Amino acid sequence: MTLPSRSLGRTGPSVSAQGLGCMGMSFAYGTPDAAEAEATLARALDLGITFFDTADVYGMGHNEQLVGKALASRRDEVVLATKFGIHDDPTAARGRRGVRGDAEYVRQACDASLGRLGVDHIDLYYQHRPDIRVPIEETVGAMAELVRAGKVRHLGLSEASADTVRRAAAVHPIAALQSEWSLFSRDIEAEIVPACREAGIALVPYSPLGRGMLTGTVASLDELEDNDFRRTVPRFQGDNLDRNLELVTVVRDVAAARGATPGQVALAWLAAQGDDVVPIPGTKRRKYLEENVGALDVELTADDMARLGDLTAAGARSAAANWTNLDTPPAG
């Protein structure tokens, strides 16, 4: 099967118009199911998805191993993206998480990811979060060395500010910026999206389904497993949840009129923001994967787009929102 394709910026590769976020296959969204995860990855390939997203921090390396193994037999057909920069120290009390963007760590992280993925190069290598202690020029300079060494094909950023994006692109071409973007998360539209478009950088929205809320399948925290991280997300709590579920009814109404599911409408709205937008909805189950891919066939009217565009979510998008849209210090 072949899906429509889109280019990752002026300098990046062509990929399927929708990718697959693989994080939930290893952690964060309840108990992992390895067999179903492997089946979902295989089904994604059969459906024509060519863009797969992982990171070294997902399951402390487990996700890279899982994805690398699943894609090994069809490696030449896919664009494999992974990320570095969020550093976990499992020996610290209660765990300790920070960000590293220094040149030495960039090189170490890349070699470790290549080993876990079982590949000789990474197609798209993202800095997972900007390091507010290290100039972006140092980080991207080290990433550019990886390109020259043949270990990486294209570079990306995640959750960077407009200023950081511009400074990074001045060092080396950036193919994509990955940030949270959905009907419920619109904060990148004012400054960051224009900065990316000025530099010819594609936008790769993660959590395009509002961490599942926009699918209409989550009505209460009681439905989530105890280890599901959404229990810590402000939008899923108290009055915020009640208000956001009211907004989901609007998505449901549009979906009913289009013969689609709420999740498909949310993805179609995002894809309609421009040909430089490639959402990566995450799922660990085949049935949701197939539903998500079906969004590529959903056409929204101008009235639909306007109605959906008026939605405003209640509550912060993350319990750690201070990790998003970050600047780095000046170079030199």
Would you write up a description of this structure?
Helix content is 35%, strand content 14%. The protein is built from ten helices and eleven strands. It has helices spanning 34-47, 62-71, 103-117, 136-148, 162-171, 192-199, 238-258, 262-271, 286-293, 302-309; strands at 5-7, 14-16, 20-21, 51-53, 79-84, 86-89, 96-99, 122-127, 152-158, 176-180, 202-206. The strands form three sheets. The chain has a seven-stranded parallel beta sheet. A two-stranded antiparallel sheet has the order 1-2. α1 (34-47) runs parallel beside α9 and α4 packs parallel to α5 (162-171). The chain starts with a strand and ends in a 23-residue tail after the last helix.
Descriptive tags:
alpha/beta, 7-stranded parallel beta sheet, two-stranded antiparallel sheet, 11 strands, globular
Distance between the termini: 50 Å
How would you sum up the major sheet? 7 strands, parallel
Helix content: 25-40%
The H-and-E topology, N to C, reads as EEEHEHEEEHEHEHEHEHHHH
Set out the fold topology.
Blueprint: E1 5-7, E2 14-16, E3 20-21, H1 34-47, E4 51-53, H2 62-71, E5 79-84, E6 86-89, E7 96-99, H3 103-117, E8 122-127, H4 136-148, E9 152-158, H5 162-171, E10 176-180, H6 192-199, E11 202-206, H7 238-258, H8 262-271, H9 286-293, H10 302-309
Parallel strand pairs: 3-4, 4-5, 5-8, 8-9, 9-10, 10-11
Antiparallel strand pairs: 1-2, 6-7
Helix pairs in contact: 1-2, 1-9, 3-4, 4-5, 5-6, 7-8
